[in-house]
Amino acid sequence: MFARFRHFARTLPQAALLAALPVAAIAAGEVDFVQSVEPAGLDPTVSSPVAAGQVTWQNLFEGLVAIDRDGRIVPQLATDWTISEDRLTYTFNLRPDVTFHNGTPFDSGTAKFSIERIVADDSTNGQKALYTDIAAVEAPDPQTLVLTLSRPSSDLLYWLGFPAAVMVEEGSADTNGTDPVGTGPFKLDEWRKGDRVIMSAWDGYWGDPAPLDTITARFIADPQAQAAALQSGQVDIASELGAPELFAQFAEDPKFATNVGTGEMEVVAGMNNARAPFDNVRVRRALMMAIDRDALIQAVKSGYGTPIGSHFSPASPYYTDLTGEYPYDPEAARALLAEAGYPNGFEFTFKVPNRTYAQRSAEILQAFFQQIGVTANIVSSDFPAAWIQEVFTDTDYDMTIIGHAEPLDIGIYARDPYYFNYDSDAFDAAMQDVATATDEAARKAAYIRAQEILADDLPALFLYSDPKLGVWDAGLEGVWPDGPVPANDMTEVRWSE
Amino acid sequence: MRRVPATLWIGAALSLLFVGAALLSRVWTPADPTGMNIAARLKGPGEAGLLGADQIGRDVLSIVMAGAWTSLGIALTATAIGGAVGTATGMAAAAGRGGFERAVMAANGVLFAFPPILSAILLGALLGPGAGTAILAIGLFMVPVFARIARGAALQVWSRDFIKAARMAGKGPVRISIEHVLPNISAQIIVQFAIQTGLAILAEAGLSFLGMGVAPPNPSWGRMLSEAQTYLSSAPHLVLAPGLAIAGAVLGLNLLGDGLRDLTDPRRGQAA
């Protein structure tokens, strides 16, 4: 009887809310956004592609610092910080009165735990390599955090703003994958697997409350279905529309706001540099010269995209155009292939994740390779689960194709192990120079040298950089136009009156 | 001699058109069905080739022709395998009777209860996509259809007097099945074969549409449809060409089957 009464007491306000929904929905603000890939877990600090962060970063989880919509480092859970003269000691002053969704207070102890968890030996953080220069973490008092580095790391603050470095607390750290507990303005309501993640405004937030009451990530992989969901009003925002050929129709429609934003995505065809014939640099160069990147962008992206010659986004101030290094030249490619010992070409397995851009690009690359006598057998791989396992974890592949969405991620080629199985002392040295550069000019020079080494060695075939084709309801304000970090930050999104 | 029904003519003509296109594609197509030409991208019918060019500038007519070979090849092989196994099973059930018959038909009933496309997706996930998987998946679900028809028809034949005569002549059930039953039920099996091939084409297109069919660059009608979805408004010919090809082939084989039935079934002839 008591239980029944309780149930009644719970449902009554819900019923009242339901009755008032048509009005409440507009006044209070609900937004559904499209997310192409459903993450395996919602914790951005464990091994996973960017999808977890795209759902939860800034909405649910926050870091010591954050990257804002313009790509700048801004204070978040740390109010300010000082960096020592030798650039080895970072002292953060932490924001007081911050609590996690489960009521646990945030202090230097939780921050210490979060950072140590990233760099621990058994850490499963996908970006762990970015933080390994952190040698010691100390919490002298509850509002102060001190990081001691083993060597200078000029981009450390930037990395600390990443989804991979958000603050988590000890009690919920292990269950954040299914039941994320952060400090953000939204908390998790429900994750309907295969469909959506529903988050609602949290009244205990330390900062200004977000204008919206409820935000929902809708997992829609099929570009056609994304477009249909936008047209029918089921979703309000697609920050990266999957099918560029559909973009024009939204641009013409006054119901929608559209934006061609800069993104940090580089689409590359990674090769297993440890496996023949891809261990031969001449083979890799020949394959690069077999590809007409402009035609590829026309066919796959309806022209929205920029050809790249190395692993760097043209949006970056450190970018240098290296597409001229190995331009499209099938004759020269065939000659180089013969010189490398494959006059009749060869055959290999092309492991392609089942994402629209990847499948399309692969089919076109296949045709280009065929022109120089190289046969690519396309094998489709389920993304993310199967692809991560086969390519990323086991490196059991010849060639694959994927978009690298993290900004300033050229350092992945220095990681050991990483799925390219690429090893170059010259490149490692260049990345070392980037980390220890004391001024902007030296840093830029080192980044450019790193790009040049890759453009010459071609551990991956560098294809194109992707713009962020955003489409959203014209009545919305505050949507991120660009993608300095792969994210769906809804904290400033509001419905205009 | 009965009049040959019009449906038979139309069905036969359509079926022959597609079989002809499939065979022709082995020796000649207007352009290379895998050769891309970005300059011709999304050109409409007449602007580039008879049926236009697709999203990477391949000639649509050539892909449709080459796709006919893929579609018909998989559909015919799957139906032939499923038909042979199913017919043999049905005939064995009719000859064996009793518990054996019940067991065989129960097994077929279970198979029949599975939605074929879903089961095919399951098989595809287990075995990996490809022509072999498609043939196996489609063929498997042809078995109960043929088994039921073969059994029903065979039971009628078994009750006839000439079977008794054959029995008295000392022939065993296997020999009777092959020498007397099969020739008498073959008309029904052939009719069903035509209709089921049509359904198999549809199933193959469905599997390819979902990415469970032949791997690219092998042309396939289902994958053409799948890839053309997002171009529906900007280049409708990309959807229409494979869509009409699938519809035409299925319609042709169905009409062919219907026509053959009308031609061979004496009772239908009388009713008409």
Task: Summarize the topology.
The complex is a heterodimer of chains A (497) and B (272).
Chain A: H1 2-19, H2 21-29, E1 30-35, H3 51-56, E2 65-67, E3 73-75, E4 78-83, E5 89-94, H4 108-119, E6 134-141, E7 144-149, H5 156-160, E8 186-192, E9 196-201, E10 214-219, H6 223-231, E11 237-238, H7 247-252, E12 256-270, H8 281-289, H9 293-301, E13 306-307, H10 330-339, E14 347-353, H11 356-371, E15 375-381, H12 385-393, E16 399-400, E17 402-404, H13 425-436, H14 440-457, E18 460-473, E19 476-477, E20 494-495
Parallel strand pairs in A: 1-10, 14-15, 14-16
Antiparallel strand pairs in A: 2-3, 4-5, 5-7, 6-7, 8-9, 9-10, 11-18, 12-17, 12-18, 13-18, 19-20
Helix pairs in contact in A: 8-10, 9-11, 13-14
Chain B: H1 6-27, H2 60-96, H3 98-113, H4 116-127, H5 131-140, H6 143-158, H7 161-168, H8 173-209, H9 221-228, H10 237-264, H11 266-271
Give a written overview of the molecule.
The complex is a heterodimer of chains A (497) and B (272). With 497 residues, chain A is of the alpha+beta class. Chain A has helices at 2-19, 21-29, 51-56, 108-119, 156-160, 223-231, 247-252, 281-289, 293-301, 330-339, 356-371, 385-393, 425-436, 440-457; strands spanning 30-35, 65-67, 73-75, 78-83, 89-94, 134-141, 144-149, 186-192, 196-201, 214-219, 237-238, 256-270, 306-307, 347-353, 375-381, 399-400, 402-404, 460-473, 476-477, 494-495. Chain A has 14 helices and 20 strands. In chain A, the strands form six sheets. In chain A, strands 11, 12, 13, 17 and 18 form a five-stranded antiparallel β-sheet that branches. In chain A, strands 1-10-9-8 form a four-stranded mixed β-sheet. A four-stranded antiparallel β-sheet of chain A has the order 4-5-7-6, with helices on one face. The two termini of chain A are 46 Å apart. Residues 1-27 of chain A have low confidence and may be disordered. By secondary structure, chain B is mainly alpha-helical. Chain B has a single domain, classed as MetI-like (MetI-like fold), CATH 1.10.3720. Chain A binds chain B through residues 223-224, 227, 243, 245-246, 248-249, 292, 295, 298-299, 354, 360, 362-364, 366-367, 370, 377-380, and chain B through 34-36, 38, 41, 55-57, 128-129, 211, 215-217, 227, 229-234.
